[in-house]
Specification:
8-stranded parallel β-barrel; binds ligand 1PR; 5-stranded mixed β-sheet; alpha/beta; 27 strands; TIM Barrel; Rossmann fold
Length: about 475
């Protein structure tokens, strides 16, 4: 069985590197997705539809692949589907669509199964495929028995992500916390760090509620701890043994001073530790801003040495998320500002009608002169595969996402954007998906406070006709 690049290796070769031959079991070549009008990498939950030419009866499932399920994909290169070609060579094929391109999602022949999607990250739907392969059950009767699975539309779904801000509290316990505009201390009761639960337990809870991804942010990462004891490593190891959707970890991904050895550990080695412990993506905040400042100071010439560049080169762009912590700055006269300003529907305290967004670092403690447009333009060039777009003004306010910020960033770069900060109810998710073309939306406080479950939010969105991954029970 081959997964993702394991499927790609079966082909003759790839546009990714023309000089490297594939194994050649499949007489076709891989191409890069066309990024003229869409985000590349293709990241998220998409279908795997068995082709008619494969000749599989409608009431049969091939290795547990079901037409109404969604599977997690993350890749920039793909095998374009040409009707009937692979089938003539004896392959059974499942395909997916990504905004005008139909590509191979899975192929099987004899005792070989290869998937472009990641079954190990595709929740119950993916585990079903792995189990069918391990049990040697090529064809099984297909039923609609997996919980409340309803007909899935083709293409990517809008992702709902649960985020856990993690830090050590004053008693030394690692807890999930949540700030109001990044202040995580209780306003009453002795200003303790707000404790909303245990990271591993909460991650599993949100997975079981149907979260499409889980993000962990170590929000005290500016403290130096021995690298091998980074608290998030253990959290990832435990979480990845029970949570089968993508895990992102952020906080402290940078060249790090190890107080135990006295040595500097390169960001790539820090990221490697996280990947080996179960992370699928790493998220960079402060380091990305510093890299962008250096990039502009260096006449926009990349050094090749930044964490974004080294990690994306080693693990692929899709493995590098840049987490942005912007703060609104109001201006009266946009022409007098050197920043990317825009008109706003929400004027400033003195009636200012324009604003720009300043990037902050160190968890919002320091505001820089770099604006969010400059930052995302630079990090996309350096190799970031996705932007986690927070907004300090909205964080913890339950007042909805900052649509103006999201539209500005979405119109600047083609990589996928995760909207974050301000979710207070299902309507806020509906609004961000229908009024912007954002790829994913993240909630923290809304889920931690138990006001809404992920499943309830998804149910509302599905009812309103949005394309959302169905919740599936493990039925095996
Ligand atoms: O700078 O690379 O070490 O990374 C530090 C990371 O920690 C950054 O991603 C930064 O966003 C995050 N961080 C640092 N301090 C805080 C804090 O809250 N004091 N949290 C912090 C960021 C923002 C989101 C939050 C959303 C949604 N939290 O993660 O979950 O705003 O909240 P809501 O739905 O409740 O409104 P580095």
């Amino acid at each position: 069985m081959g997964i993702c690049v394991g499927l790609q290796a079966l082909f003759e070769g790839s546009a990714e590197d023309q000089d490297v031959p594939g194994l050649g079991f499949v007489q076709e070549r891989l191409e890069r997705f066309n990024d003229e009008r869409k985000s590349v990498p293709h990241i998220g939950w998409n279908s795997a539809r068995i082709t008619d030419e494969s000749g599989i009866a409608d009431n049969q499932s091939l290795y547990g692949i079901q037409k109404n399920s969604k599977y997690y994909y993350v890749h920039s290169y793909m095998a374009p589907y040409r009707s009937g070609h692979l089938e003539k060579a004896g392959w059974k094929v499942a395909v997916a669509d990504y905004e005008g391109e139909t590509f191979v999602g899975a192929i099987t022949k004899d005792n070989v199964l290869a998937t472009q999607f990641h079954p190990e990250k595709s929740g119950a739907a993916g585990l079903r495929v792995l189990k069918a392969f391990l049990d040697g059950k090529r064809l099984t009767p297909y039923g609609e028995e997996s919980g409340k699975v309803i007909k899935a539309s083709s293409g990517l779904t809008s992702r709902i992500i649960a985020c856990l801000d993690v830090r050590t509290n004053d008693q030394g316990d690692l807890v999930v916390t949540k700030g109001d505009q990044y202040d995580v201390r209780e306003k009453s009761s002795g200003s303790d760090v707000r404790n909303l639960g245990k990271p591993v337990e909460l991650a599993e809870k949100y997975y079981r509620q149907g979260a499409d991804e889980v993000v962990f942010l170590n929000i005290t990462s500016f403290r130096d701890t021995p690298v091998k004891d980074q608290p998030m490593l253990e959290i990832l190891r435990k979480t990845s043994s029970t949570v089968f959707v993508p895990l992102t970890v952020g906080g402290g991904i940078r060249d790090t001073h190890d107080p135990e050895t006295g040595k500097t550990v390169p960001a790539l080695d820090v990221a490697t530790l996280y990947f080996k412990s179960g992370a699928d993506k790493v998220s960079l905040g402060t380091d990305a801003v510093v890299a962008a400042q250096e990039y502009y100071a260096n006449n926009c010439i990349p050094t090749g040495n930044t964490a974004i560049e080294t990690i994306s080169k080693a693990y692929g762009n899709q493995a590098v998320v840049v987490s942005v912590d912007p703060k609104r700055v109001y201006v009266t006269d946009p022409l007098a500002s050197k920043h990317y300003t825009m008109p706003t529907k929400f004027p400033g305290p003195n009636g200012e009608g324009h604003c720009w967004y300043a990037c902050t670092i160190h968890g919002g403690r320091t505001t820089t002169d770099l604006d969010v447009v400059q930052l995302v333009t630079c990090v996309a060039k350096l190799g970031a595969g996705e932007i986690l777009l927070n907004c300090i003004d909205r964080d913890g306010t339950n007042s909805g996402f900052d649509l103006e910020l999201i539209r500005q960033v979405k119109s600047t770069v083609k990589i996928p954007i995760i909207a974050s900060s301000g979710a207070g109810n299902a309507d806020h998710f509906k609004q961000v998906f229908s009024e912007t073309n954002v790829d994913a939306a993240l909630g923290a406080g809304i889920f931690h406070r138990g006001e809404w479950t992920v499943e309830q939010v998804k149910d509302e969105l599905i009812r309103d006709g949005l394309s959302i991954r169905n919740f599936e029970q493990e039925d095996f």
